[in-house]
From TrEMBL:
GO molecular function terms listed in the Swiss-Prot or TrEMBL record: methyltransferase activity
Listed EC numbers: 2.1.1.195
Taxonomic path: Bacteria, Bacillati, Bacillota, Bacilli, Lactobacillales
Native organism: Streptococcus ovuberis
Keyword S-adenosyl-L-methionine among record annotations: yes
Name this protein carries in UniProt: Cobalt-precorrin-5B C(1)-methyltransferase
Gene Ontology terms describing biological process: anaerobic cobalamin biosynthetic process; methylation
One Pfam family, short name: CbiD
Associated pathway: Cofactor biosynthesis; adenosylcobalamin biosynthesis; cob(II)yrinate a,c-diamide from sirohydrochlorin (anaerobic route): step 6/10
Family recorded in the similarity comment: Belongs to the CbiD family.
Reaction catalysis annotation: Co-precorrin-5B + S-adenosyl-L-methionine = Co-precorrin-6A + S-adenosyl-L-homocysteine
Keyword terms: Cobalamin biosynthesis, Methyltransferase, S-adenosyl-L-methionine, Transferase
Domain of life: Bacteria
């Protein structure tokens, strides 16, 4: 992997996610057990397939147990976790084959439904869990088990600088990362990169585009709708900006595919969906459920939810899944209205999904959308 990228002529250094650091620490610990010697440097593969070599801190081993730490390096896109040590203690279990992964000191615990992990589980997201398990398994083989404990001594204090408590993750940070690599980009540079991607599609003769607000949206579009990834543009949180760029460049059709937790904000007219700019998800759900005549006790339960996934359980229990169609139609209306005063006219369709229930609603029958866009 190239260590640097160039953004607007500036040379910026890439970094690594907490998930990659946890994986590297786990691999270093296993290597020390197997080789019975200290490790100073360790090489691992990230979730995106990139091979990286990292320095091992505080290595120690004793028989079938070892501990190692990797320093989190956010590159030139540093966040609150930059510079902290991510530790792994691994114990090999020759009498079993299961690999157990848990979080210790400074790794948050999930206390609310609707997140990537169930209530009670350590906040080590699915992709880092998968990479830790795969990397450990490659070293120990199929006939041995292992217990992996990820801990971050500074994690509880650092978590106060994150949104974890608002998401119902208490006691520490989350171990995150869908690709394993942190690519440095300022917000302006990020927007510019999206415009370049849109321009390339338009210059190649496309008058329609699929927009997703993140990796989950891309995955749903490709895996559930069968849309080629090359036709999808990740608009991140910049909904309004990207839609205006779409119109400026001459696109006339848009399909927005996104997780309920992100696009519900657009139903309220919010066109910048980052949590630092807005968070009216639950309020928007409550308002629209109230307009549908939902009972007060249900509205109070939804209002107490931290995530839309938690709210979805209540909505399902009370039989108000029709709210998703209302919201999809409002997203279409609000986004088309944003562009109505300029040319060309842009038609926007919407597909909403949830982590647990999958497809929720769309502004056209799903089969029609698949036929039109694949």
């Amino acid at each position: 992997m190239e260590e640097y990228v160039y953004v607007n002529g500036k040379k910026l250094r890439r970094g690594y996610t907490t998930g990659t650091c946890a994986t590297a620490a786990s691999v270093a610990a296993v290597s020390m057990i197997l080789n019975q010697e200290l490790e100073e440097r360790i090489t691992v593969r990230t979730a995106s397939g990139v091979t990286v070599t990292m320095t091992v801190h505080a290595p120690s081993f004793d028989g079938l147990t070892a501990t190692a730490a990797i320093q989190k390096d956010g590159g030139d896109d540093a966040d609150a976790t930059h510079g902290i040590l991510i530790y792994a203690t691994v114990t090999l279990l020759p009498d079993q084959t299961e690999i157990e992964i848990d979080g210790g000191q400074g790794v948050g615990r999930v206390t609310q439904k609707g997140l990537a992990n169930p209530v009670g589980m350590a906040a080590i997201n699915p992709t880092p869990r998968k990479m830790i398990a795969q990397s450990v398994r490659e070293l120990i083989g199929p006939e041995c088990g292992a217990k992996v404990l990820i801990f971050v001594p500074e994690g509880e204090e650092i978590a106060k600088l994150t949104y974890n408590s608002r998401l119902g993750i208490l006691g520490g940070i989350s171990i995150l990362g869908t690709t394993g690599i942190v690519n440095p980009m300022s917000e302006d540079a990020w927007k510019a990169a999206i415009t370049v991607e849109l321009s390339m599609l338009r210059n190649n003769g496309h008058s329609s585009v699929i927009l997703a607000p993140g990796n989950y949206g891309e995955a749903f579009a490709t895996e559930q709708l069968g849309i080629p990834k090359a036709h999808i543009v990740n608009m991140s949180n910049f909904v309004g900006h990207v839609l205006k760029e779409v119109q400026r460049l001459g696109f006339t059709k848009v399909l927005m595919v996104g997780h309920m937790g992100k696009l519900v904000k657009v139903a309220a007219g919010t066109m910048s969906t980052h949590s630092k700019d807005s968070d009216g998800r639950i309020e928007t759900l409550v308002a629209n459920l109230a307009l549908m005549g939902a009972p007060l006790d249900m509205l109070q339960q939804v209002d107490a939810c931290i995530t839309t996934e938690a709210a979805a359980v209540i909505i399902k229990d009370y039989g108000y899944e029709g709210v998703y169609q209302v919201l999809a139609d409002k997203i279409k209306m609000k986004t088309e209205r944003l562009l109505k005063f300029k040319k060309p006219a842009v038609t926007i369709e919407v597909v909403l999904f949830g982590s647990e229930d999958g497809y929720l609603a769309s502004t056209k029958p799903l089969e029609e959308i698949k036929e039109e866009w694949t």
